[in-house]
Amino acid sequence: MKKLVTPLWLLAIFFLSPFILNAQSFTDDFESYNVGDYVGSKSSDWTTWSGTTGGAEDAKVVDDTAASGNNSIYFKGTANGGPQDVVLLFHGLYETGMFEYSMKLFVPSGKGGYFNFQGDQTIGNIWSVDCNINTDGSMDFSVPASGAGGSVQYTQDNWFELKVTADMNTNIWKVFIDGNQELEFQNVTNKVASIDLFPIDASSEFWVDDVSYNITPYTPAGTNASAFLIGLDNGLVGQEKDIVGTIKNLGVTDITSFDLEFSYDGNTVSESVTGITVPSLGTHEVSFSGTATLAQGNKAYSLTVSNVNGLSADDNPADDSKSLSIQPVSPAPGKIVVAEEGTGAWCQWCPRGAVAMDAMQHDFEGYFAGIAVHNGDPMAFDEYDQGLGGLISGYPSAVVDRGADIDPGVIEMDFMERIQMAPAAVLTNGVSIADDSSSVAVSVTAKFGQAISGDWRMVCVLTEDGINRDSSAYAQSNAYAGGSNGPMGGYENLPSKVPASQMIYDHVARAISPSFEGTPNTFGASASIGDEETRVYYFNTGALWDLSKMHVVGILLDENGRINNASYSSLFEGVENGFASGEDVTGVETPDQPDAEFSIYPNPANQSTTIRSSREVNKLQVFDVTGKLVYEDNQTWKGYYRLNQNSFGEGVFIINLFNNQGEVLETEKLIFY
């Protein structure tokens, strides 16, 4: 049976209610089709991502299994995803009112899939919610614009009902499995126009039956403010979190003032807002002056709007307050989680990964180590790129503690799981930097709190923040330009090809030692509780590395190749920790660094600095700001050159390097103080 009612006008006037309901409903159990029919060819409600129906992108009706009756539709993916990419239209864009979508799914053991809700009637403009159906019987829901969401469990090899509901007036989304609520979250996009069903890779295989949706739009009336969005990020027990509250005008009268109250764990903070104008369906965000300390346990937090335009009550008190729950995680002592992200300047979707990594580093400082592994651009480090390439299927992708390949937008989900796991050993970094900055020695010490046996390994990684080069090869492709794909950490305000001068790359993998996999049996056959093991790694510095912006990540791999624990520190924090002697893992190495040609470090400098050039230099000249030549050296050199301040004193200088043809190789500003 197939039924579509659009629109069905239901006029209901309730005492003290401003609602006029325009309800739209749809059901499809595929019994009205013939086996072998393409649904997009037979129904105006179904289409495909491209709009081309009746071919490989469409879905066929099958009768090999069904949740009810005889028929269903079947999806199976390829290595590159698809080619099926089927869309059910909701025949409008909805951002207020009540929304409910349900379908029956059958996912075989070890298989998975994917779907998303689109937030614009133009398909491909805005992703409202993503859902990855994982091969292990879990489903990850995420809001691409914020990372909000969570995971639920489903049963493989059985038909089950998935239902998603949204009260879009108060912005509360819920996920149900077989009638049981499993997840609740907010959605900063909070719009729906269609659902896209897509077998995302070769592991994708699933059947769909008994699809339905119900939409009850809301008509603004009177004076009405809703508690729309609570900006309290989940995190770790004891973390201080900023609080942001957003109200939405669901009336027709402009809102010019209101009070807003936030409550959590027995504490309440409030703000009074005046001198504003919030038009109908507009929103207003309020940053609270107080903060919230995340407490142990699953506890409710709420947002309440009152005193709207000075009224004791607005015209719909039902949406004045919203309540959600939060359960912060208690981190295991000494645990640091590692996320390795595959990215590239050529990759138009990779700004999503950069934003996610920056957010994780900011939100979980001291507990998180992010490593951006570049591919196909000047920051690519081949050995690391090839190693991570064996774990991911595309770009951007990420692995957390070298687990499953995931979208960077859901790193936090895996992080929250891993941060609770007690590590076998706590790692500490020590660093020694050569006087001329030409090399770095790193000691990583593991103090074991658990006994281990088998092939455990250790790896040392150097990363760099703040990379900015004036070269077109560093320009970043950007699919988020113009905002059509939603907000993305400011990339929506940048062009589709972000100029290199505007790009700053962080967490960039610069070197890895001894290899991506590490040395077999790094600790021998076993280690006991209380044992301390130190391994030492040596690196020649890349010519363009800025040591002041670099970090050390020590990695402990278990016998299955998963990261058990890590250490994370800046190079100079490692120096302060103190370099520890131990077993040398590698000799001095020179990483293959395509962008490494010239550097001055440190700069600004006191007393002396080191100039490094990967090209042969036949003359060096130093000019002051007036253009006066204050120093010249005509010796030929390549590699490192020590420049002392006592040659010309303090100030701002211009360094010129020349080749044997008298041509300028490099020009750089140097500050001596």
Radius of gyration: 29 Å
Helix count from the secondary structure assignment? 5
Overall geometry comes to globular
CATH class category of the largest domain: Mainly Beta
Explain the overall architecture:
- The chain is mainly β and 673 residues long.
- It has 4 domains: 2-216, Exo-inulinase, domain 1 (Jelly Rolls, Sandwich); 225-326, Immunoglobulins (Immunoglobulin-like); 337-584, Immunoglobulins (Immunoglobulin-like, Sandwich); 598-672, Immunoglobulin-like, CATH 2.60.40.10.
- The chain is built from 5 helices and 45 strands.
- Strand 19 and strand 20 form a beta hairpin.
- Residues 1-21 and 590-594 have low confidence and may be disordered.
Concise account of the structure shown:
The protein has 673 residues and is mostly beta strands.
Task: Give a quick set of tags describing it.
Jelly Rolls, disordered N terminus, 673 residues, 4 domains, 6% helix, Immunoglobulin-like, mainly beta, 7-stranded antiparallel beta sheet, 5 helices
Secondary-structure topology with pairs:
Elements: E1 2-10, E2 21-28, H1 39-42, E3 46-48, E4 61-62, E5 72-76, E6 86-94, E7 98-106, E8 113-118, E9 127-133, E10 138-142, E11 149-153, E12 159-167, E13 172-177, E14 180-185, E15 192-197, E16 205-216, E17 225-231, E18 240-249, E19 258-264, E20 267-273, E21 283-293, E22 299-306, E23 321-326, E24 337-343, H2 351-363, E25 368-374, H3 382-389, E26 397-400, H4 411-418, E27 425-433, E28 439-448, E29 452-453, E30 457-464, E31 476-477, E32 497-498, E33 508-513, E34 526-527, E35 532-540, E36 550-557, E37 563-570, H5 571-577, E38 583-584, E39 598-601, E40 608-617, E41 619-624, E42 629-633, E43 637-644, E44 651-658, E45 664-672
Parallel strand pairs: 24-25, 35-38
Antiparallel strand pairs: 1-2, 2-16, 3-6, 4-5, 5-16, 6-15, 7-12, 7-16, 8-9, 8-15, 9-10, 10-11, 12-13, 13-14, 17-18, 18-21, 19-20, 19-22, 22-23, 24-26, 27-28, 28-35, 29-34, 30-33, 30-36, 31-32, 36-37, 39-40, 40-43, 41-42, 41-44, 44-45
